[in-house]
C-alpha cells in the first residue's frame, strides 16, 4: 500500500477530490516522516506542525462543503515546504544565517502568498546554504543537510533542504531559488525535477535577495506534471516586483503530452569538452540518445564564451550580494554583522572590492560586457535549435567535506548552471539515472518564457525512463 | 601558492567599506582566498570587449511605474516588531554626532 506522503501532487489532488483520504491524513503522514527521518537528514530549520495541522483541518472542512473548490485552488490541502529564504508572515525566516536567527517577517513573499491562496499547507521552512551562498548545503549556520540517497554525500545547494525534503518524502513539493544553479544542482543530486524559470517569470518580492539581476524563484517536484502545476500558481506579473514582465501565464499542464518529434535539440560542444566526469558525460550521452529515439533531431551547437561564464558570475554575483547584504545592520531587525559566517563575509568582501573606486571598470563593468556576449551566444544558438540539453553538474554528488575547504573548487560546481542565470533564461533539471547509486540529472534549457516547451521535453523523456519513480532507502 | 594580488591594506580598506570587523586570522585568510579568486577571474582580460554594451538586466523592461495611489502599508507596530532597541515608536541607533 502506497503511503500518502509518497504520492505526487497530482495523485494527492485526485485522492482528495475522490475523498480517498483527507488533507489531515496526508499532512500527518508527512509530519510523521519528518519526525522519523529529519534528525539524520536535517532538511528542515522550522517545522510548523501546529499550523500545518490547523490548515489541513480547515481545508478538509472547506472541501466537505464544496468539493469543487479544488478547481480554483489547485494545491488545496497539499503539504509543501518553503525554502527558508522566502518570507513567511509570522513564521521564523532565517536564510539559514545566525544574523536572522530570530527574524519573524511581517509579510509573506508573493510566491508564498500565491501558494497559500491556491490552498497549499505549509509544513515548514527548509535548510539552505546561508544567504543561498553555496552549492552543497554545507554552508548553513544550522548544520549541513545530508543527501537522502546516501547520508555521507551532499544533497547539493543552495536549496539543499528543499531538495532533501521532497526526495525523502517529507513534503510533496518545495520552493527554491536559483541564482547560479541552486535549484538545478540539488534537483540533479536528489533525483528530482527542479525548475529555474525565466528571470522575472516568478516574483522575487519577499524573497531575501542574493543577486538581484540573477535570482530566479522556482521549485522542486517529483515529476514534470507536478512542476508544471506549481509554476501555473506562482508565475505571473506582480506589482510588487518591477522586474516581472506582463507575459501571459499559460496552462503549463495542458500540452505536456505533445511529444518531441522533429524538435531540434542543441548539444553545446563546449559543455562536453570542458572538465566533466566521464560517467556523467556517458549519462548525458545516453539521455541524448533516448531523446533522439523519441524523435528529436540532435544538433551540435557552440556556446563560444562558456569558459568565461564562471568568472563573469563570480564577479557579478558577489558584487550584487555585497549590495543586498548591506541592509543587515542589526538596527531594524536581526543580529549585527559580526554574525555573518565565512562564505557570506568572503562574498561581501569580493563584491565590495570589485565595485570599489579604481576597480569597478576592470572587474564589474568588464563582467557585464562579457555577460552580453554570453547572452548573445544563447540567442544565436536558439536560432538554430529550440532547446539545449546539457549536464547539470560536472561531477556526481560529492562527499560532505570534500570541497568545503577550497572555495574556488566549490565554485567550479556551478560551471554548467551559471550561464542560464546570466542570460536570464529558464532551465529544467530532470532525473537521468544513477552513478554508484547516486542520482544524476540533465538540464533542458530554452529561450526566455519557453517553460512550456521545457516541460514537454522533460515529460517525453520522463515517460520513457521512469527514473523519478525510484525512492531512496531511508 | 597564488600570487598575492591583494595587499593587507587593501583587505582592511575593503572591510571598512563593507562594514565588517575582521580579526587578524580572517584578514590573512581572506587576503589569500580573494587573491586566488581574483587570479581566476583574470581570464576575462583575454577577451576584447571594446564597444560591447554591458548587460545589467535581462528583462528589457524600462520605467516600470505604478498608479500614484496610496495603498495600505505596514503599521508602525509591525515595522518596529523586529527589534527590542526602540523608544517612542522610533528605532534606537548609536549616536553619530557628539
Give a verbal description of the structure.
The complex is a heterodimer of chains A (474) and B (98). Chain A is α/β, with parallel strands linked by helices. Chain A contains 15 helices and 11 strands. Chain A has helices at 9-17, 23-41, 49-65, 110-117, 160-167, 184-189, 224-234, 269-273, 278-293, 309-324, 342-355, 361-384, 407-411, 418-423, 451-465, and strands at 44-47, 79-83, 121-126, 174-178, 193-196, 216-221, 264-268, 297-301, 387-391, 427-435, 438-445. In chain A, the strands form 2 sheets. An 8-stranded mixed β-sheet of chain A has the order 4-6-5-10-11-9-7-8, with helices on both faces. In chain A, helix 7 runs antiparallel to helix 15 and helix 10 crosses helix 12. The longest helix of chain A has 24 residues, at 361-384. Chain A is globular and about 65 Å long. The model of chain A has no long low-confidence stretch (mean pLDDT 96). Chain B is mostly helical. Chain B has helices at residues 8-17, 24-41, 76-80; strands spanning 86-87, 90-91. Chain B has a two-stranded antiparallel sheet with strand order 1-2. The interface between A and B is large, with 54 and 48 residues.
Amino acid at each position: 500500500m502506497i503511503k500518502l506522503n509518497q504520492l505526487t501532487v497530482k495523485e494527492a489532488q485526485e485522492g482528495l477530490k475522490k475523498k480517498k483520504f483527507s488533507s489531515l491524513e496526508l499532512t500527518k503522514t508527512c509530519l510523521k516522516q519528518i519526525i522519523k527521518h529529519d534528525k539524520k537528514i536535517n532538511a528542515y530549520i522550522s517545522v510548523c506542525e501546529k499550523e500545518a495541522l490547523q490548515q489541513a483541518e480547515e481545508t478538509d472542512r472547506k472541501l466537505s462543503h464544496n468539493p469543487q473548490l479544488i478547481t480554483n485552488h489547485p494545491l488545496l490541502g497539499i503539504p509543501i515546504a518553503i525554502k527558508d529564504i522566502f518570507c513567511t508572515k509570522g513564521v521564523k525566516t532565517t536564510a539559514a544565517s545566525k544574523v536572522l536567527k530570530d527574524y519573524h517577517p511581517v509579510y509573506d513573499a508573493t510566491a508564498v502568498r500565491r501558494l497559500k491562496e491556491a490552498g497549499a499547507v505549509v509544513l515548514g521552512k527548509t535548510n539552505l546554504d546561508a544567504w543561498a551562498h553555496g552549492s552543497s548545503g554545507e554552508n548553513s549556520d544550522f548544520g549541513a543537510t545530508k543527501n537522502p540517497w546516501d547520508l555521507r554525500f551532499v544533497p547539493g545547494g543552495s536549496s539543499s533542504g528543499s531538495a532533501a525534503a521532497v526526495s525523502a518524502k517529507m513534503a510533496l513539493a518545495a520552493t527554491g531559488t536559483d541564482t547560479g544553479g541552486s535549484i538545478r544542482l540539488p534537483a540533479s543530486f536528489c533525483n528530482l525535477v527542479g525548475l529555474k524559470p525565466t528571470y522575472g517569470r516568478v516574483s522575487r518580492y519577499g524573497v531575501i535577495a542574493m543577486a538581484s539581476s540573477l535570482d530566479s524563484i522556482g521549485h522542486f517536484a517529483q515529476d514534470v506534471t507536478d512542476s508544471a502545476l506549481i509554476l501555473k500558481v506562482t508565475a505571473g506579473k506582480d506589482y510588487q516586483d518591477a522586474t516581472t514582465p506582463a507575459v501571459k501565464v499559460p496552462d503549463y499542464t495542458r500540452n505536456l503530452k505533445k511529444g518531441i518529434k522533429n524538435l531540434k535539440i542543441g548539444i553545446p560542444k563546449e559543455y562536453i569538452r570542458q572538465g566533466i566526469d566521464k560517467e556523467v558525460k556517458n549519462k548525458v550521452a545516453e539521455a541524448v540518445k533516448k531523446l533522439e529515439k523519441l524523435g528529436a533531431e540532435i544538433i551540435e551547437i557552440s556556446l563560444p564564451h562558456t569558459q568565461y561564464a564562471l568568472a563573469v558570475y563570480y564577479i557579478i554575483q558577489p558584487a550584487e550580494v555585497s549590495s543586498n547584504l548591506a541592509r543587515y545592520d542589526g538596527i531594524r531587525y536581526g543580529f549585527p554583522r559580526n554574525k555573518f559566517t565565512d562564505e557570506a563575509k568572503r562574498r561581501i568582501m569580493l563584491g565590495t572590492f570589485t565595485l570599489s573606486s579604481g576597480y569597478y571598470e576592470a572587474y564589474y563593468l568588464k563582467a557585464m560586457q562579457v555577460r552580453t556576449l554570453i547572452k548573445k551566444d544563447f540567442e544565436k544558438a536558439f536560432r538554430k535549435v529550440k532547446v539545449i540539453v546539457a549536464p547539470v553538474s560536472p561531477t556526481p554528488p560529492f562527499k560532505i567535506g570534500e570541497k568545503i575547504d577550497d572555495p574556488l573548487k566549490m565554485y567550479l560546481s556551478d560551471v554548467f548552471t551559471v550561464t542560464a542565470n546570466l542570460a536570464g533564461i529558464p532551465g529544467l533539471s530532470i532525473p537521468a539515472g544513477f552513478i554508484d547509486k547516486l542520482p544524476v540529472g540533465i538540464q533542458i534549457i530554452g529561450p526566455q518564457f519557453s517553460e512550456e516547451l521545457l516541460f514537454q521535453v522533460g515529460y517525453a523523456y520522463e515517460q520513457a525512463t521512469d527514473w523519478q519513480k525510484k525512492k531512496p532507502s531511508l | 601558492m597564488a600570487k598575492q594580488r591583494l595587499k593587507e591594506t587593501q583587505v582592511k580598506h575593503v572591510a571598512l567599506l563593507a562594514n565588517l570587523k575582521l580579526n587578524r586570522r580572517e584578514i590573512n585568510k581572506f587576503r589569500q582566498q580573494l587573491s586566488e579568486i581574483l587570479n581566476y577571474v583574470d581570464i576575462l582580460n583575454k577577451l576584447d570587449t571594446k564597444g560591447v554594451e554591458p548587460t545589467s538586466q535581462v528583462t528589457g523592461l524600462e520605467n516600470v511605474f505604478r498608479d500614484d495611489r496610496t495603498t495600505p502599508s505596514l503599521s508602525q507596530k509591525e515595522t518596529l516588531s523586529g527589534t527590542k532597541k526602540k523608544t517612542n515608536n522610533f528605532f534606537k541607533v548609536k549616536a553619530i554626532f557628539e
